[in-house]
Amino acid sequence: MKHRRIVSNARETLGNVAPALAHYSEEVLFGDVWRREELSLRDRSLVTVAALVAGEHTNQLPF
Question: Do 20 and 29 meet the contact criterion of CB atoms below 8 Å apart?
Answer without folding.
Answer: no
